[in-house]
Amino acid sequence: MEEEEAGAGEDAGSQLMCRIERPLYDEAFLRTQLLHRRENTTTFRQRLAEKFRCTSSKAKAVALTFLPFLTWLPSYPVKQYLFSDVVSGLSTAVVQLPQGLAYAMLAAVPPVYGLYSSFYPVVLYAFFGTSRHVSVGTFAVISLMIGGVSVREAPDAMFFVPSANSSSNSSEFDRDACENRRVQVAVVLTTLVGIIQFVFGLLRFGFVAIYLTEPLVRGFTTAAAVHVVVSQLKYLLGVKTKRFSGPLSVLFSVGAVFSRNHSH
């Protein structure tokens, strides 16, 4: 019996005891200390001078803000991550090749420009991006919007020229001129959008995204899927129809595809 009591005493003594001490706050302390607003004795001129004072620490912080690769590139573990990063990059590139070609068709430009738009944004974002989880590159909705503007500014009717090999009043479609003009429209449009996004980035305008509600994002995603499916119906059914843009373009596209398919 005495041995059991001695063993129980040893077990109790071997247990670790944790003691936490916290200060006790009352309402008077919170009012006088935490809620008390300190008087600011500095003038507006002094605060402005402090804000625009150029120091080495501020210059470094600004450089790291606009060039974020300077924070991770010096400490990048080459031996540990380089091989796996190369393999994942090659795997993504294999998937991105046909995807870029398809998005170029949505944008109404030659397929090779889909490869350009799949390569350069990723390379630039690797140096200037701040998120490790953002998927950068071509996007179906953006391609459709660019294609709508390109078709509207350079419709097929602008590029029918009189046929040189026929004595009649027949005309033929100048595909090269049409593609070149649509590429110019797409380049100008994307350049303007890039300038606007760059200005928004300087102004830290990304906070607007927190006001986009979930129903709005879901509706936008669903509508984008509908537009993509309708735009590919003519290729799926093997019919040739003109491209529609503007309001109710989805209904016009569906009507043209099924009317042409029914006539065949």
TrEMBL record:
<feature type="transmembrane region" description="Helical">
    <location>
        <begin position="185"/>
        <end position="210"/>
    </location>
</feature>
<dbReference type="GO" id="GO:0016020">
    <property type="term" value="C:membrane"/>
</dbReference>
<keyword id="KW-0472">Membrane</keyword>
<feature type="transmembrane region" description="Helical">
    <location>
        <begin position="101"/>
        <end position="128"/>
    </location>
</feature>
<dbReference type="InterPro" id="IPR011547">
    <property type="entry name" value="SLC26A/SulP_dom"/>
</dbReference>
<dbReference type="InterPro" id="IPR018045">
    <property type="entry name" value="S04_transporter_CS"/>
</dbReference>
<dbReference type="Pfam" id="PF00916">
    <property type="entry name" value="Sulfate_transp"/>
</dbReference>
<dbReference type="GO" id="GO:0008271">
    <property type="term" value="F:secondary active sulfate transmembrane transporter activity"/>
</dbReference>
<keyword id="KW-0812">Transmembrane</keyword>
<feature type="domain" description="SLC26A/SulP transporter">
    <location>
        <begin position="82"/>
        <end position="257"/>
    </location>
</feature>
<protein>
    <recommendedName>
        <fullName>SLC26A/SulP transporter domain-containing protein</fullName>
    </recommendedName>
</protein>
<keyword id="KW-1133">Transmembrane helix</keyword>
<feature type="transmembrane region" description="Helical">
    <location>
        <begin position="216"/>
        <end position="237"/>
    </location>
</feature>
<dbReference type="InterPro" id="IPR001902">
    <property type="entry name" value="SLC26A/SulP_fam"/>
</dbReference>
